[in-house]
């Protein structure tokens, strides 16, 4: 089986079978990451451009590692070192990138739809590494992979996602993916940070965090971004932590074996208490490790026919 | 020189006419409208099977001259108007520099005269530089030919400034046209706030941000007695407010655009910047509210808010693209196909919304087929098959959300002062 699109623009438009295929494929790549020589020649001769218009050390590092382990030639093209910061349009920059004949462009950008824009205008396969508050499909895939590892399934799970829903691309991709796979997702946060009619995506929505946590199999805390803290969405970070922070008292509402997740980077003691982040129910560091395997799976599947292993 | 329009179906809402009649034109004016007029020496224009209407008026266009002629000029805008079946348009003052003085009002009129296409009626700025701080010379611009006043492109933010404008404009009997948007509530919004903006992660432009300003304007109009006109009304809430105000006798009028009548916010889901405009495409409930107002008489005019932008300017990330779509060359076909042929409004009501409606808002004796009136005439083919194609546009810009649409009905001939300025019969 193959993916129906040559791009990964978002979870939107994918089928449950495609998601399962990526997750299953990632299982194989986890083993490679555990070997002494963590490299396969799958993408030998393929060029991948990491086009990060918005800085993101951890997502970029994860992609870079995935590319290296697949033996691809990777090139980093970030906003602050390119003409892009000098007012060149995205289209012109993209055309310049295309002139390097990349097979893949991994794009992180502050504006929703930027990967779709690239896909319309240039020839390479585009992977969305986060477009504004729209989607972050590889994050949702690695979250699903991590959940599946612990729970053995996604179907029928209760997932609570708590935090700044409004500005989070992670939550959008997660809601789309998890509901597609049959999970029951409830999002929670202050009403000022709950997007209008968000439940049209198939999740439930409540500002009563206790209600969201009740009986959850998975509890995911989202980062409260610094720029939101002074923007009037809530009075203070102290009050935010009091009202919405996930701590051990609140976690008691969830199932006894509920896992605790966070896409990072984390504000310790604000959206998630430090003891939970470091506790034995936290899978936060596994998420990071799984990210590489999932991204390897995505690149591998998008490349279609794996490059033939030749002895050089 | 005499011209005889023969055997057309004449639809003239002002005189409640809908009949096959001949129209004789002499020296640029209508000389006779009768059942059968002998041609004599006049040139006969055979219009059997076609519909003859008073010249259509679009009271809200942006022609970008002076300052941004790469998007549109007065000449190309007027040509687009002629091609779209409009004999007159009122152009907004958000040019560079802003049309806030007599010299620019006269300049635009001179450019329009030179173009010799549709009539172009300038709308002067309400405030100097559209800064919302000091009133512009409304009286002097009105004397020079400005037909209305607006800071369109942006709202009149200060309630005090709106009050002053409504008070002062009473001297001249001209409407103050407001782009109703509460800037604090909108703050960076790019698409309608609803399930689409939430799904796509865009900052939303909530409908209530229009409603609060419409309500404010109605209250200030009632208080001052000034005439306020709501530009490009886009929400069901605004429609309710205007309907109630009109029932009370308020001096409030309003217009809607064809795109807000036929497209909802789902259209932006492909991130096509040709679906990005201000106000944004709204929810399905809003469309219902607008169509209701169209049918029950609350709406005074259909106006295009023709807002040309160069394709390079639109070929960027969605949130960075400028707001606005062209509309002059698709409006009539859209309204015929989507409103008249689908029995949402009658043909006569549509003609009214394009003629006596806007003329009435502007306080002008136009938009009717009467003996002695200037022979401004729009001829329609109700069944013409139209495929929207930017290559056919007279406009310099192609940023239409309707490209490739197949529509039934469209304008086929446009006459100003008895002169044929566009003909595709
Ligand atoms: Zn406007």
TrEMBL record, chain A:
Keyword DNA-binding: no
Gene name tied to this protein: pyrB
One MF annotation (Gene Ontology) recorded for this entry: aspartate carbamoyltransferase activity
Entries under InterPro entries matching the protein: Asp/Orn_carbamoyltranf_P-bd, Asp/Orn_carbamoylTrfase, Asp/Orn_carbamoylTrfase_sf, Asp_carbamoyltransf, Asp_carbamoyltransf_Asp/Orn-bd
Positions contributing to L-aspartate binding: 86, 169, 223
Domain Aspartate/ornithine carbamoyltransferase Asp/Orn-binding: 155-302
Gene Ontology cellular-component annotations: cytosol
Pfam families linked: OTCace (PF00185), OTCace_N (PF02729)
Pathway: Pyrimidine metabolism; UMP biosynthesis via de novo pathway; (S)-dihydroorotate from bicarbonate: step 2/3
Chain ranges of the Aspartate/ornithine carbamoyltransferase carbamoyl-P binding domain: 6-148
EC number: 2.1.3.2
One Gene Ontology biological process: 'de novo' UMP biosynthetic process
Annotated keywords: Pyrimidine biosynthesis, Transferase
Stated family: Belongs to the aspartate/ornithine carbamoyltransferase superfamily. ATCase family.
Subunit annotation: Heterododecamer (2C3:3R2) of six catalytic PyrB chains organized as two trimers (C3), and six regulatory PyrI chains organized as three dimers (R2).
Protein name as it appears in the record: Aspartate carbamoyltransferase
NCBIfam families, per database record: asp_carb_tr (TIGR00670), PRK00856.1 (NF002032)
Residue positions binding carbamoyl phosphate: 58-59, 108, 136, 139, 264-265
From TrEMBL, chain B:
Enzyme Commission (EC) number: 3.5.2.3
Pathway listed: Pyrimidine metabolism; UMP biosynthesis via de novo pathway; (S)-dihydroorotate from bicarbonate: step 3/3
Alphabetically ordered keywords of this record: Hydrolase, Metal-binding, Pyrimidine biosynthesis, Zinc
GO BP term (any one): 'de novo' UMP biosynthetic process
Sequence positions that bind Zn(2+) 2: 152, 179, 232
Active site: 305
Bound cofactor: record note: Binds 2 Zn(2+) ions per subunit.
Start and end residues of each Dihydroorotase catalytic domain: 52-235
Residues given in the record as Zn(2+) 1 binding sites: 60, 62, 152, 305
CDD domains: DHOase_IIa
A cellular-component GO term for this protein: cytoplasm
UniProt cross-references to Pfam families, sorted A to Z: DHOase
Function: Catalyzes the reversible cyclization of carbamoyl aspartate to dihydroorotate.
Family, per entry: Belongs to the metallo-dependent hydrolases superfamily. DHOase family. Class I DHOase subfamily.
Name of the protein described by the UniProt record: Dihydroorotase
Organism: Candidatus Polarisedimenticola svalbardensis
């Amino acid at each position: 089986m193959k993916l129906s699109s040559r791009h990964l623009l978002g979870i939107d438009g994918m089928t449950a079978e495609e998601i399962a295929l990526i997750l299953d494929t990632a299982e194989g790549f986890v083993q490679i990451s555990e070997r002494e020589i963590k490299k396969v020649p799958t993408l030998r001769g393929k060029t991948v451009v990491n086009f990060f218009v918005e800085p993101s050390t951890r997502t970029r590092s994860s992609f870079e590692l995935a590319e290296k382990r697949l033996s691809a030639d990777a090139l980093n093209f970030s906003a602050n070192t390119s003409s892009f910061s000098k007012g060149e349009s995205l289209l012109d920059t993209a055309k310049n990138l295309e002139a390097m004949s990349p097979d893949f462009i991994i794009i992180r950008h502050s504006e929703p739809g930027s990967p779709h824009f690239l896909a319309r205008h240039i020839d390479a396969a585009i992977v969305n590494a986060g477009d504004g508050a729209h989607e972050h499909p590889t994050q949702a895939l690695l979250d699903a992979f991590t959940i599946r590892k612990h729970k053995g399934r996604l179907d029928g799970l209760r997932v609570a996602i708590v935090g700044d829903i409004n500005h989070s691309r992670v939550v959008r991709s997660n809601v789309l993916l998890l509901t597609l796979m049959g999970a029951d997702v409830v999002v929670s946060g202050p009403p000022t940070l709950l997007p209008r009619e968000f439940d049209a995506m198939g999740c439930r929505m409540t500002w009563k965090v206790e209600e969201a946590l009740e009986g959850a199999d998975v509890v995911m805390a989202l980062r409260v971004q610094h720029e939101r803290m002074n923007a009037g969405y809530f009075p203070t970070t102290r009050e935010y932590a009091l009202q919405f922070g996930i701590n051990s008292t609140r976690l008691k509402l969830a199932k006894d074996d509920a896992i605790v997740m966070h896409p990072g980077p984390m504000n310790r003691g604000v959206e998630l208490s430090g003891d939970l982040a470091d506790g034995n129910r936290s899978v936060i560091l596994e998420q990071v490790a799984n990210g590489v395997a999932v991204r390897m799976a995505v690149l591998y599947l998008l490349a279609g026919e794996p490059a033939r292993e030749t002895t050089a | 020189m005499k011209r005889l329009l023969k055997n057309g179906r004449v639809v003239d809402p002002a005189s409640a006419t809908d009949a096959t009649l001949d129209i004789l034109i002499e020296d640029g004016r209508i000389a006779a409208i009768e059942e059968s007029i002998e041609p004599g020496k006049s040139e006969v224009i055979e219009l059997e099977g076609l519909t003859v209407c008073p010249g259509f008026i679009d009271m809200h266009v942006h022609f970008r001259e002076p300052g941004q002629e790469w998007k549109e000029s007065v000449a190309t805008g007027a040509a687009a108007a002629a091609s779209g079946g409009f004999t007159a348009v009122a152009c907004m003052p958000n040019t560079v520099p802003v049309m806030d003085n007599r010299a620019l009002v006269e300049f635009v009129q001179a450019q329009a005269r030179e173009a010799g296409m549709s009539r172009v009626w300038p709308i002067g700025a309400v405030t100097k530089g559209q800064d919302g701080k000091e009133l512009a010379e409304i009286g002097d611009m009105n004397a020079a030919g400005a037909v209305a006043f607006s800071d369109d492109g942006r709202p009149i933010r200060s309630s005090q400034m709106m009050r002053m404008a409504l008070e002062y404009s009473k001297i001249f009997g001209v409407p103050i046209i407001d782009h109703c948007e509460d800037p604090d509530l909108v703050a960076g919004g790019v698409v309608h706030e609803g399930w689409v903006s939430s799904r796509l992660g865009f900052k939303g432009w909530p409908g209530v941000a229009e409603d609060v300003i419409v309500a404010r304007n109605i209250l200030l109009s009632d208080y001052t007695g000034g005439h306020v006109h709501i530009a490009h009304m886009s929400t069901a809430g605004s429609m309710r407010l205007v309907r109630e105000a009109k029932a009370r006798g308020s001096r409030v009028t309003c217009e809607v655009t064809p795109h807000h009548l036929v497209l909802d916010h789902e259209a932006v889901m492909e991130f096509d910047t040709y679906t990005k405009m201000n106000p944004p495409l709204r929810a399905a409930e809003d469309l219902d509210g607008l169509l209701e107002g169209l049918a029950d008489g609350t709406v005074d005019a259909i106006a295009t808010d023709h807002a040309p932008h160069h394709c390079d300017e639109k070929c960027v990330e969605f949130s960075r693209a400028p707001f606005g779509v062209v509309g002059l060359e698709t409006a009539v076909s859209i309204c015929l196909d989507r409103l008249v042929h689908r029995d949402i409004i009658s043909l006569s009501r549509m003609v009214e919304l394009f003629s006596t409606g806007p003329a009435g808002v502007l306080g002008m004796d136009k938009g009717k087929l009467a003996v002695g009136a200037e022979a401004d005439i729009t001829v329609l083919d109700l069944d013409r098959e139209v495929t929207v194609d930017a290559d056919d546009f007279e406009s310099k810009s192609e940023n239409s959300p309707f490209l490739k649409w197949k529509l039934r009905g469209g304008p086929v001939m446009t006459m100003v002062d008895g002169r044929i300025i566009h003909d595709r019969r």
